[in-house]
Design goal:
Layout: H1 2-13, E1 19-24, E2 27-32, H2 34-41, H3 60-81, H4 95-118, H5 126-133, E3 139-142, E4 148-151, H6 157-165, E5 173-175, H7 187-190
């Protein structure tokens, strides 16, 4: 019974061509046939792409390159749906708003791609880089008499390296417009209380 179960498992894993099961008393013995394994391993990593395009429309290399591009498209959709860009249908209800939301997410994805290219040599993901840059802040400076501006302190070395790699120069100060930034996520729910 165990031999049949093992052989079915080997067939499902497609290793029965080079892996054999034998019964020796109360033991099952697996034996690797090196010659058959060597022959099967010659095709490791090989695949066939079949298309209905005529050869005049696209050569084999072009078809292969477009197939490989599909992995980038799949990764793009994954990035758009993750917490980084949050393209989710429940944020908007009206078609016009949905289209606008999708446009903003696609523009944000273009920025993510540019940051990924800029930070490729720094060995970190865009999400890690943005988390590092989230430590940037401003200080509101008010002069007697009511004039105010936001000053940007010197970024930490890691943040400065990310900005330099992305060719971003921060200004020393920003005008104080009196606008309040409100996050979508309520911070009270995320704080740990003693």
């Amino acid at each position: 019974m165990a031999v049949k179960h093992l052989q079915a498992r080997m067939a499902r894993l497609k290793v029965e061509g080079w892996l054999k099961a034998a019964v020796e008393g109360r033991r099952l013995r697996l034996q690797v046939e090196a010659a058959a394994l060597g022959q099967a391993s010659r095709l490791d990593g090989c695949y066939v792409i079949k298309t209905d395009l005529p050869q005049a429309a696209a050569d084999a290399q072009t078809v292969h390159d477009r197939y490989k591009d599909l992995a980038h498209v799949e990764q793009a959709f994954r990035t758009c749906k993750t917490a980084l860009l949050e393209m989710r249908p429940w944020f908007v209800r009206i078609e016009k708003s949905t289209r606008g939301h999708a446009l903003v997410v696609m523009l944000a994805y273009l920025i993510v791609r540019q940051l990924a290219k800029a930070w490729a040599a720094l060995d970190l993901t865009v999400e890690e880089g943005l988390r590092q840059l989230s430590t940037l802040c401003t200080m509101q400076m008010t002069v007697k008499g009511g004039a105010a501006c936001h000053c940007l302190p010197t970024p930490r070395p890691a943040s400065a390296e990310l900005l330099r790699a992305a060719e971003i120069e921060l200004p020393q100060s920003l005008p104080c417009l009196g606008a309040r930034v409100v996050t979508r996520k309520k911070l009270q729910e995320q704080r740990v209380t003693p």
